[in-house]
Specification:
With 64 residues, the chain is an all-beta fold. The chain is built from no helices and five strands. A hairpin with a 4-residue loop joins β1 and β2. The chain is elongated and about 45 Å long. 11% of the residues are buried. It comes from Rubritalea squalenifaciens DSM 18772. This is Benzylsuccinate synthase.
Amino acid sequence: MSATKTDNKTCASCAFWDSANGSEGSCRRNSPQTVVFEISSEKKITTVFPVTSSQDWCGEHQEK
């Protein structure tokens, strides 16, 4: 059985989700991922958490 909105096992009800504006937020289940990008031939490195919708879900949901 897969999680759906009716199961209430969405990002919005997960202990690992950090809401940014109510409908989007960051999944904090794992450490942030390193991202390398180039701006004007200069390489930049940053870390980011995955951005998810409040209605997204995964198999590792834990209630708040």
